[in-house]
Amino acid sequence: MSTDVDLTVPEFQQRHTVLSRLVALDCRLFEAAASRHWPGADPFLPRLSRSANHGLLWFGTAAAIAATRSPRARRAALRGTASLALASATINTVGKRSIRRARPILDVVPLTRQLKRQPITTSFPSGHSASAAAFATGVALESRRWGSAVAPVAAAVALSRVYTGVHFPSDVLAGAALGAGAAFAVRGLVPTRDQLQPAVRPAAEAPALPQGQGLVVVVNTAAGQPDRIRALHDALPLAEVVECEPADIKDELERAARRALALGVCGGDGTVNAAARVALRHGLPLAVVPGGTLNHFAQDIGIEDVRNVCQAVERGEAIAVDVGRFVVRDGVGDETEGSEGSGTDENSGGGEASGTGVGAGISEASGVSEGYFLNTLSLGVYAELVREREQWAPRIGGWAAGVFATVRVLQAHRHPLRAGFAIREQPLWLLFAGNGTYHRTGLAPGRRFDLADGLLDVRLVHGGRRPGPRLLAAALAGPLTRSPFHAAVRLRRLRVSGITEGTPMAYDGELTTIGGELMLDKLPGALITYRPLPRTGL
Q: Localized where (predicted)?
């Protein structure tokens, strides 16, 4: 046995010595910070520290960020709040109970700095620092501009916890690290928009319009986006902007198309649908200015705000996207092509559809109705939900109406709709068809990465008792899946027969009623829409 090894000193005592030195260093840093004079900090940092109690400072900051009504700002506020919630829950359930460290002794802290109400929980790690770092990191992951504005405040909150004597420096560092980790964990579950860039389609030809000359933009005033209209005027001073009420959208789009080199639209998805129909008929490229609540189409083609679309218009950058088409034939028999889980491989054909109706997006002639959809079309409970939401939205607002409508529809004693597929008829709670395949990463809502794939994303929720669990199972499942409750397939066309007259159908947020036979297909690459193209390296 070697005499160089001292067996009287256990290994854990050696590790304990290292830990003691780190704790001693931590105490010296705390005393240095507590005894140091910080000009101007006495009236500021204690108040800032108190304002962050229970996350109130960050909830207020999130509300202020979201109030700017920018989609990116709203996402940043939501991501910051979610990150804070995860960090706070982790600290209070695991962190504080794992290492029961006592709070610093306040003898060296001037009385003017000390908080009036001292915290009674353990010291390690700092919950305030975790919340501050989680919120700031979450915001920055979604918006660097807002992140740079929030970061100094978060750093000041973390510093205030040492300044007021309620935490050691190591408590603050550990809390900040846990908070930042929580923000990245949220990003793992719900990726940021920058991580989900849509697939780049081959560029389409569209006229470049310097300062917007030749662009006529029709604005739905019901969207209530005066800030975006001002930004549009500033970026494209030669563009013509026509503001009108929803009832006049159809006529104004038609008049604008007759004198425009490119047609622009500002409004929600329903307004964009009407504009797309006019653009298709007149062979014009479409410039979409996001002006609604959700802006599904604009988001999926990569238009984040007014700046994006204005850059594309001036440069003449555009892509070609598919357009979904539906044809309803009244009073036809039950003979069908296509069935659940099957479809034809032939291309559905392109070209422009005939007809002049725009308001509801449907053309009618001799018992045949035709229309387009850019996002989704559905029969069943979702169409019922849209109808309920439209009834209540003017009274209680859009978001509240959506929640209220969902509860009413799921609780109502409705029977599934019946529809024919191939040689059999079956009950359905929902038939959903997306213009392009919807994908979901983590817990993020579904998005389309390719709007020119030539496919319909078809989801069916089979009829039966209790539609809620069936709808939830379908919502959580991805494309190309099947279960006893639902089926999901990708088709080029679909025909459904035997639809009861008066069945509600929703498409791009608009609502109508149909009956008879429904035929769905695609117009591949039919719509040219402005979108900034990625800058390639040298």
A: Cell membrane
CATH topology of domain 368-523: Tumour Suppressor Smad4 (2.60.200)
pLDDT at 483 over 90: no
**Alpha-carbon distances of 122 from 30, 60, 173, 340, 359, rounded to whole Å:** 16, 27, 15, 59, 63
- For 447-470, write each residue's pLDDT tens digit: 788 889 899 998 887 665 655 555
In words, the CATH class of domain 204-321 is alpha beta
CATH no. for 27-195:
1.10.606.20
Distances (CA, A) of 448 to 24, 199, 473, 481: 55, 9, 20, 17
- In angstroms, the CA 447 to CA 199 distance is 11
Tokens of 509: 């947020």
Task: Report the run of H or E that residue 486 belongs to, with start and end.
Answer: strand 486-491
Residues 332-341 have pLDDT tens digits of: 433 333 333 3
Structure-block tokens of residue 91: 């600290």
What SS3 state is found at 347? coil
d(CA 272, CA 294) in angstroms, rounded, equals 12
Contacts of 368 (CB under 8 A, 6+ apart): 327, 328, 329, 330
For the chain, give every domain's residue range: 27-195, 204-321, 368-523
Numbers of helices and strands, H then E, in the chain: 16, 17
Closest CA to 112 of 62, 59, 163: 163
- State the DSSP string of 376-396: EEEEEHHHHHHHHHHHHHHHH
| Model confidence band, residue 15 (pLDDT cutoffs 50, 70, 90) | low
CA angle centred on 368, ends 362 and 371, rounded to 5°: 25
Nearest alpha-carbon partner for 287 in 309, 307, 305: 309
| Residue where the block lists tokens 């009385």 | 111
Handedness of CA 294, 299, 304, 308 (dihedral sign): negative
As a 3-state breakdown, the chain gives helix, strand, coil percent values, each rounded to 5, of 45, 20, 35
